[in-house]
Amino acid sequence: MRLIAGLSDVVPLDSIYGVTDLGALDLPGEPGVWEIEWKQDEGPSWLTPGRNGLLMTQYGPGPFHLRYELWDADPGDPAERSWTGRVHFASGRLAAYTLDEENETYEEFDLGRAGAEWNVRVDWWSLREALRPEFAVHEVRGQVLRFRFWP
After folding, report:
1. How do residues 78-93 score in pLDDT, each as one tens digit?
2. Superkingdom, according to UniProt (predicted)?
3. Helix spans in the chain (H)
4. Which of 15, 61, 93, 105 is the most exposed place for a label (fewest CB within 10 A)?
5. For residues 12, 135, 77 and 39, what is the CA-based torsion angle, rounded to 10 degrees?
């Protein structure tokens, strides 16, 4: 397995609504993350997958440190809190989405292929859990979310 591309981003808020396919906005009939209906029976309690997005409604404390990764095969090594499944993305251009400002999105991550279904793994840690033990003794706030994609 090989890492093909990666992008790090920060959402400096105490909540994140999800990750959406930016190109779905311009394609007739394609839903976005705001059209995913929250489902208790699909995915973990903190995430609902849907066409063109991942509904997360995560609440802080923020900020949210995001990492997007494109792999050529399953990268393995899921976190203790993770979800793995398949999601269709109309354009393959993804970004975090919040409800803080109307249609506010963040850095764009391009999967490089439109109209495809992808394997996705979402891993979640508190920032304290993600730090090396010698740094975790200090007051830290925030969440870390890693999104891994492969064909």
Report:
1. 999 999 999 999 999 9
2. Bacteria
3. 127-130
4. 61
5. -40
